[in-house]
Amino acid sequence: MAIMKALDNSDLYTIGWIAALPIERAAATGMLDERHSTPLDFVQHISDMNAYTWGRMGRHNVVIVSLPAGLYRTAAAGNTASNLLSSLPHTRIGLLVGIGGGITRPADGRDIRLGDIVVSQPQGTTGGVIQYDLKKALSDQKQERKDFLSMPPQVLLQALGSLQAEHELEDSIVPKFLSAMPRKSRAGNSTKGKNGYSHQGIENDKLFRSSYTHIGGHDCLGCDSTEEVEREIRDTTDPKIHYGIIASGNTLIKDAATRDKVVEDVGEECICFEMEADGLMNHFPCLVIRGVCDYADSHKNDRWQRYASATAAAYGKELLSYVPVRGLQETQKALDVLNSPSDTITGLDGLKRSSHFNAIEKWLSPPDTSTNLNEALEKRLEGTGSWFLESEAFQEWEKRERPFLWVHGIPGCGKTILSATTIEHLNQTASIEPSPITLDFFFDFSDSDKQSLKKLVRSLIAQLYSRCPDSQAEADRVFSSHNDGNRQPTEKLQFETFSRMLNHVKVANIVIDALDECETRKDLLLWIESLINLKHPGLHLFITSRKEEEIESALQDLVNNESIIPLQEDLVNDDIRAYVHHRLRDDRGFERWSSHPNVRSMIESELMQKANGMFRWVACQLDALQDCLNVDLLEKSLQSLPKTLEETYGRILAGISESHREYALRLLQFLIYSDRPLAIREAVDIMAVDLSRDPCFDPARSMPNPREIVRFCSSLVSLVKRNIQPTISYSYSNYTTTDSWISDDPEDSDDLEESVDLDGPEASDGQQEEVEELQLAHLSVQQYLKSSRIQSSVPTHIIDAGALFQDGLICLAYLSRPGEHQTSEQIRAEFSFAHYSAQLWIDNATATETDKMVEQSIMGFFLSTGQAYKVWSKLWRPDHAKSGSYLVITAAPLYYASFLGLKHTVQLLLELGADVNAQGGQFGNALQAALWKGHTEAVQLLLAAGADANAVGGTYENSLQAVVWSRHKNIVQLLLGAGADVNATGGLYKSALHASAALNHKGIVQLLLAAGADVNIIGVYHGSVLQDTSAYGYKSIVQLLLAADADANTIGGRYRSALMAASVYGKKDIVQLLLTAGADIDAYTALRSGHKDIKQLLLQASDKII
């Protein structure tokens, strides 16, 4: 491959080209006339995580940047722009180029086709883009119009006018640029399973009437062709160019009814929908160019995305040919525009605040418990729970007369719905002054991400951060001190941070539901005690749980009896009666009794006599009574109603028909041990696996109506709707500095550092989508199925290691079905359960490795290295957090066993002669994999078998760096004792001492220094170790290094010296330490500091400065 030139000065790149998707960035890269290496003087801002591609289009130097993988939304676009300007402040203008949904109206003369180009053009007071708040984008909801966004830069508008005038006389040269792409890359080729960057054929451009909804399937082969809109046949497939208003919002529009409503609201000038522009237009001077890849309706698919990316990029290139070089030089810098006063531009500060909030949220990674709230509110019958809101206890709590309420009750009495009712009421109440902030959290037995104190506190911090600006500084300080979110705080520090944030709130209501579903209950109760002991005058806690001894004894010592509210039968009976009445009246299963009021009264009477305050019990009985087809059957059922929930569940299991039994038990088995609900598509595929067939899984044998899966064990499972982020099957490398994205298809790996694979993984829209998930209907169901009281008619292996073993066999059988040469994206699209089965199998194996059957299964799997093994390692790279996103390099079984900590498997593989020093995998070899994960016993086994402690390779390049990153001090000692070279070089930080210092691990730094680590070793990025720690402000480690004779005047690295690094980042205490240690200063160092107090300190300390 030809060597790319590198320009001396990054200031020469004056145009920022932003592309949301990798295919959009790839198309832009394909349009470069000349591709460059990174500029020689380029220094990326410490907070800038963007990846850049450099090059020339015509007379202009352009830098191309794409959004973080999976975050294709307005806030992510703003963050990307902010980072771009922080590293490249000389950027003058921007282009936002990619794909969008076209709004076509052939009958009105606006005939937009797939592959056409739409360009934002100002009209009247609008800047060409209108911002919307598409909160849910459902067909039956109105859209809330927000505002018009700012005008593009004048130099771009002038170029736009010149280009339009030229097109009145001559054809666009976009087709010329498109035809040149295949000669420069593989973009024009259409490989199996992928669509290339060429026109996809007029037969695949179908526009259906708004009233016609898509019939299932990836394409429209099953759709009725008579519902297509008749359009004139074009005499060419060349794209046409349309100018008008682009509507931008945070939610994908994918149904015609919603599309038409938005168009009706905004006006006929709207020609396109997209999802990034309103995160940029007020913060980054740019023009928006979109290639049309769908019609924003239910028929949308990915087929046209690459071609639409290419047409948009080609137009962007043509437009830049009309931007004069001098005119661009005279254009105000984007950063200066943002910092200038304006009523319509909020400026870079506003953009950075938005970007910072996103960084905080990503750092905290709180679980989304709004799904629990919404689910409970949807189940709630209107009017129920009012008795509680009107009760004296709640009224006193709401009026601040009681700081604490604990509401407890029996399983299934409606506590979670009561919590949701309370939260809704508090959020709607504005009459109490000062206006309170309400925070909430729902513990959830079915979701492992909602079962710990740590997740609760992270969620509360994130909620408080977003709702109380005065509290943000407390979290910001912790974020900054932890390498701007690159490291995690201890749980203790999280608790302290939340407590300090509460000091900035006058009144805070905290609602916590289902304490009994928390896995770290002891710590949770101690934390609640600490909150109460804060004696914050405005803090009010509302907690629900079952009445369990551990909870009761802890809370009784903290609060008075008036604050403990039992949900007694008489308190909830009115709500239960309303629920029964509603079900009998509205459920289709009881329609047969609609003209028999006496029968409905009989049902209601019998149920109310035996409900004992249990909503859950009543719901299960009503489910069963729907099957009674006549009065005799109904009377018999009512006379023999089960007395308890456990007896109810036992009857449900016993009543499952023989033909359904195998499927029901399999479904329950997976749900019991899964750490999350199953997507309905996953569950359907699980049911279709038949271990006695070959192949074991045939998609044609799946259920035609997936929602009917609940009928296998109705009342024990439930379907819930959730909004999720679709699986993103590509990502940028976390460990390389290349500016190309890497396909996980082995055929695409010829030249990883320089190639741009334009036929890489399928693009994802990056928006949330609503999915249906299957879960156990209630915690009491899970507890019954796991108990010893389960009926003898149910196989015991549903609750023991045999269940995990059986699940594992099904997972392995399923994994053997995909084709060996399919990419992970193709596998996920065709096999819904593939990704989770790859993870679930090994999770189950790890949990029960000592079981003989499981051990045999693990060894059989690893030693076969067959189809299932290859698919598993392709779909779920356990050694890489973003599975499926990397080049697939299948490592040896010993490597994966070591990484997963399967010590028995490691021992067996070594006994069978496995090469202990075999290379492969993300970490290079088995030893580094075990070191990074902190598996002490596996490390000991590998070292005893002759593993080379100084082997080179993998992400961290040597073993000592790998274990330093894992922060396991005891294993560092173990490795040093095995002869690891303490000064081995390589890896991201050049040395283990650099890495441990950058990670602020004082204990490991001390250990390495004691072992003879070179305190003055020079690294790659910040030069010396002292410069590294000075930049981060790690005072205790700076003191350690200076005590070990670190040279305070070593020159090199990004900031030339440790003193400069500390000055730039405002670390005054570090500056003082370095000055005391004899650090040299000069005028340049002093004046470069943007911190007044440090500048004054340096000027006073230096005799050289007058």
TrEMBL record:
Task: Report each ANK repeat as a residue range.
Answer: 889-921, 922-954, 988-1020, 1054-1086
> Any idea what this protein is called?
Nephrocystin 3-like N-terminal domain-containing protein
- GO molecular function terms noted in the UniProt entry: catalytic activity
**Disordered: annotated segments:** 739-768
Cross-referenced SMART domains, in alphabetical order? ANK
Q: What superkingdom does the record give?
A: Eukaryota
BP GO terms, sorted: nucleoside metabolic process
Keyword Acetylation part of the UniProt annotation: no
Q: Known SUPFAM superfamilies for this protein?
A: Ankyrin repeat (SSF48403), P-loop containing nucleoside triphosphate hydrolases (SSF52540), Purine and uridine phosphorylases (SSF53167)
Which UniProt keywords are listed? ANK repeat, Repeat
List compositional bias (Acidic residues) regions by residue number: 742-768
The Nephrocystin 3-like N-terminal domain sits at 383-546
